[in-house]
Design a protein that fits this description.
Elements: H1 2-15, H2 21-25, H3 70-103, H4 107-179, H5 189-198, E1 205-207, E2 213-215, H6 230-236
Antiparallel strand pairs: 1-2
Helix pairs in contact: 1-3
Keywords: Mitochondrion, Ribonucleoprotein, Ribosomal protein, Transit peptide
GO cellular component, one term: mitochondrial small ribosomal subunit
Main location: mitochondrion
């Protein structure tokens, strides 16, 4: 098992020779370093969660220290020292490559690339703005036309409303003029009084379903002449 683990580490070291600076930062953090992978670590418990305290029955328990044979201990120590040496060398190599790449960067080239990228993005932005401007002009023209139609319809409705109002007012004025013939004025007030006195209307009657009038029980009171005295009026009553 130890030899296979060592071979696996060697294969990993051979795979990440051409690696970038971002991977170099995670080299010393991951226990199982695999390029282009996500580092995960699973923690499990069998009998109880790890955040619970020690059981009362095991507070004073002293675990037995495992006894490792000397030959195995020497071999494990040798393998661990080799692994640590390889990983230290590998980290130093990665740092050296990153430093060389950093020093080889030319500022003029970077500025030119940045300027070209800005020009390309600006051209794309101008193209988008032109398309949006055309769409906006079409939309605004449609909105203006729609608003114009709404205003014209509103004006027509107002004119029709005013015309109907004028017709109604003219009819009302015409009706009032026709009825004004029967109005009592200062000129015909005497004639109206004489007509009322001569044509006495008895409202004490009713009309049945067949159209017959039924006179009331009490006849209308006759008019009293101004020349009669009050005593004569009482005798008549």
């Amino acid at each position: 098992m130890t030899i296979s683990f060592y071979s696996f580490r060697t294969i990993q070291t051979m795979r990440i020779i051409n690696i970038n600076a971002l991977t170099m930062g995670t080299t010393g953090l991951c226990e199982t370093f695999i390029p282009n992978s996500v580092y995960t670590q699973c923690i499990r418990w069998k009998r109880k969660p790890i955040w619970l305290p020690t059981a009362k029955s095991k507070v004073f328990r002293v675990p037995k220290k495992p006894v490792i044979p000397m030959e195995d201990y020497v071999e494990l120590k040798r393998l661990y020292n080799n692994y640590r040496t390889y990983m230290t060398s590998f980290n130093a190599y990665i740092r050296q490559i990153a430093k060389e790449n950093k020093t080889q960067v030319n500022e003029t080239v970077v500025n030119e690339l940045t300027e070209e990228d800005f020009k390309a993005c600006n051209a794309i932005n101008d193209e988008w703005n032109a398309k949006i401007a055309k769409i906006r002009e079409i939309r605004l023209a449609e909105m203006r036309e729609k608003r114009k139609n709404i205003i014209l319809q509103s004006i027509l409705k107002q004119e029709q409303k005013q015309e109907k109002r004028k017709i109604r007012i003219n009819e009302l004025v015409k009706k009032v003029k026709e009825e004004s013939i029967t109005f009592i004025t200062a000129e015909n007030v005497d004639a109206a009084i004489e007509e009322c006195l001569t044509n006495i209307v008895n409202h004490n009657r009713a009309l049945d379903v067949e159209g017959n009038w039924h006179e009331g029980k009490y006849p209308p009171i006759p008019l009293v002449e101004e020349t009669q005295e009050p005593a004569a009026i009482e005798q008549q009553n």
